[in-house]
Each structure stands twice: as C-alpha cells, then as structure tokens.
Amino acid sequence: MRKISSVITLSAALLVANVAFAENTVMVGGQSMLPSKDIIDNAVNSADHTTLVAAVKAAGLVDTLKGKGPFTVFAPTNAAFNKLPAGTVDTLVKPENKATLTKILTYHVVPGRYDFAALSSAIKKGGGQAELATASGVKLTFKQNGMHNIDVIDDGGHVASISTYDVYQSNGVINVIDTVMLPK
C-alpha cells in the first residue's frame, strides 16, 4: 500500500509540475517557447520566424541577442517580411547591406523587459501613447487599440499589431508582430 501511495504522490507532483510548466510557456510557430531559454534559442524553433532568424544571423546579431539583456524583441513573422516589396529581404541579407539590416533589426529591440502590463502602464503614463527608444537609437510609438491590443508605430507611420504577447525568455521577452518596422 505504501508503494501505491508513493506512486500516486509522485504522479500528482509530476502533474502539478507539468501544469505549472505549461502555464509558463507560450506556443509560437508551432513550438513551445521555454522561459529557461534565451531569445535566439527559442526563436530558431519557431516556424513563423525563419526569416527573422536568417536576418539576425546575416546581421551578426546572434551573440548580442544571446546576451544577458534584458531585451524586448518585437519579432516580425515570416508573413510580416512577406509584406515587404519583392526582393527586399534577399537584398538586405547581402553582406554589403549588413549596416542597413542591422539598423532595421535593432529597431525591433527595446532594452528592458516590456510585456503587455509594462507597455500598458507606459501608455497610461504617457496619456494614451508611449515612446520607447530602440537599440538602434530611434523610437517606436505604442498605443492601446481596444482593451487587450497594443499597436506599434514606426517613425514612418507604419503600424504593427502585436499578435502574441509575453513570450518570456531567460534574457527578456518577445512580442510577436505582423509588420516589419522600418526606421527612416
């Protein structure tokens, strides 16, 4: 009887651990994003972010985004990159365009950890919008769009919607967006 009780107790403990683990993960691109992994280690597993990962590699930003952080990455999906004019991505990943690609990618990175709650708080403090400086030195604007949606606006007026919030990483947070932000 003691052995059955131990098995039941162990099974219950594993079930509780699995439920807690599942609550702390978010599915992106068909894969669980594990909070114990860094931004790059999670991003490479997302089928929705293969273009972003290739661009990060071409720009030489892998080591930076594996760094301590914290970083908030507004991660455009493959569909977001596909909205760009034909040939844009192929041109940007060429070695001679590394500086331009780096500026675009770092425009999607904000130092610090900005999950939905932090963005909402900044928007409220800003009287309906917030501006956050990106790693490229140019600001992005954030506005509430309804109760549970936040839009990201680049300095050219392009608007991205955040489709997945609060993808926590060991070195920051990812918020998935549907449009590539372009600095002027």
From TrEMBL:
<dbReference type="InterPro" id="IPR050904">
    <property type="entry name" value="Adhesion/Biosynth-related"/>
</dbReference>
<dbReference type="InterPro" id="IPR000782">
    <property type="entry name" value="FAS1_domain"/>
</dbReference>
<feature type="domain" description="FAS1">
    <location>
        <begin position="36"/>
        <end position="181"/>
    </location>
</feature>
<dbReference type="Pfam" id="PF02469">
    <property type="entry name" value="Fasciclin"/>
</dbReference>
<protein>
    <submittedName>
        <fullName>Putative surface protein with fasciclin (FAS1) repeats</fullName>
    </submittedName>
</protein>
<dbReference type="GO" id="GO:0005615">
    <property type="term" value="C:extracellular space"/>
</dbReference>
<feature type="signal peptide">
    <location>
        <begin position="1"/>
        <end position="22"/>
    </location>
</feature>
<dbReference type="InterPro" id="IPR036378">
    <property type="entry name" value="FAS1_dom_sf"/>
</dbReference>
<keyword id="KW-0732">Signal</keyword>
